[in-house]
Amino acid sequence: MVQSEGRIFSGKDVAIHNSRESCWIIVHGKVYDVTEFLDDHPGGSKIILKYAGKDATREYEPIHPPDAITTNLPPEKHLGSVDLATVEKVIVQITDEEKARQQRVDARPSLDAILNLHDFEAVAKLVMPDKAWAYYSSAADDEITLRENHAAYHRIWFRPRIMRDVTKVDFSTTIFGQKTSMPIYITATALGKLGHPDGELNLTRAAAKHGVVQMIPTLASCAFDEIVDAAQPGQPQWMQLYVNMDRNATRRVVQHAEKRGIKALFITVDAPQLGRREKDMRQKYDAEDPAEQARTGGDVDRTQGAARAISSFIDPGLCWKDLAWFKSITNMPLILKGVQCWEDALEAYDQKLAGVVLSNHGGRQLDFARSGIEILVEVVTKLKEKRGITFPNDKFLLFVDGGVRRATDVLKAVALGATAVGIGRPFLYSFSAYGTEGVEKALQILKDEFEMNMRLLGAPTLKDVVPSMVDASNVHSHIVSVPGDNLYNNNYESLPLARLKELKSKL
Amino acid sequence: MVQSEGRIFSGKDVAIHNSRESCWIIVHGKVYDVTEFLDDHPGGSKIILKYAGKDATREYEPIHPPDAITTNLPPEKHLGSVDLATVEKVIVQITDEEKARQQRVDARPSLDAILNLHDFEAVAKLVMPDKAWAYYSSAADDEITLRENHAAYHRIWFRPRIMRDVTKVDFSTTIFGQKTSMPIYITATALGKLGHPDGELNLTRAAAKHGVVQMIPTLASCAFDEIVDAAQPGQPQWMQLYVNMDRNATRRVVQHAEKRGIKALFITVDAPQLGRREKDMRQKYDAEDPAEQARTGGDVDRTQGAARAISSFIDPGLCWKDLAWFKSITNMPLILKGVQCWEDALEAYDQKLAGVVLSNHGGRQLDFARSGIEILVEVVTKLKEKRGITFPNDKFLLFVDGGVRRATDVLKAVALGATAVGIGRPFLYSFSAYGTEGVEKALQILKDEFEMNMRLLGAPTLKDVVPSMVDASNVHSHIVSVPGDNLYNNNYESLPLARLKELKSKL
Amino acid sequence: MVQSEGRIFSGKDVAIHNSRESCWIIVHGKVYDVTEFLDDHPGGSKIILKYAGKDATREYEPIHPPDAITTNLPPEKHLGSVDLATVEKVIVQITDEEKARQQRVDARPSLDAILNLHDFEAVAKLVMPDKAWAYYSSAADDEITLRENHAAYHRIWFRPRIMRDVTKVDFSTTIFGQKTSMPIYITATALGKLGHPDGELNLTRAAAKHGVVQMIPTLASCAFDEIVDAAQPGQPQWMQLYVNMDRNATRRVVQHAEKRGIKALFITVDAPQLGRREKDMRQKYDAEDPAEQARTGGDVDRTQGAARAISSFIDPGLCWKDLAWFKSITNMPLILKGVQCWEDALEAYDQKLAGVVLSNHGGRQLDFARSGIEILVEVVTKLKEKRGITFPNDKFLLFVDGGVRRATDVLKAVALGATAVGIGRPFLYSFSAYGTEGVEKALQILKDEFEMNMRLLGAPTLKDVVPSMVDASNVHSHIVSVPGDNLYNNNYESLPLARLKELKSKL
Amino acid sequence: MVQSEGRIFSGKDVAIHNSRESCWIIVHGKVYDVTEFLDDHPGGSKIILKYAGKDATREYEPIHPPDAITTNLPPEKHLGSVDLATVEKVIVQITDEEKARQQRVDARPSLDAILNLHDFEAVAKLVMPDKAWAYYSSAADDEITLRENHAAYHRIWFRPRIMRDVTKVDFSTTIFGQKTSMPIYITATALGKLGHPDGELNLTRAAAKHGVVQMIPTLASCAFDEIVDAAQPGQPQWMQLYVNMDRNATRRVVQHAEKRGIKALFITVDAPQLGRREKDMRQKYDAEDPAEQARTGGDVDRTQGAARAISSFIDPGLCWKDLAWFKSITNMPLILKGVQCWEDALEAYDQKLAGVVLSNHGGRQLDFARSGIEILVEVVTKLKEKRGITFPNDKFLLFVDGGVRRATDVLKAVALGATAVGIGRPFLYSFSAYGTEGVEKALQILKDEFEMNMRLLGAPTLKDVVPSMVDASNVHSHIVSVPGDNLYNNNYESLPLARLKELKSKL
Question: What is the ipTM of this complex?
Answer without folding.
Answer: 0.90
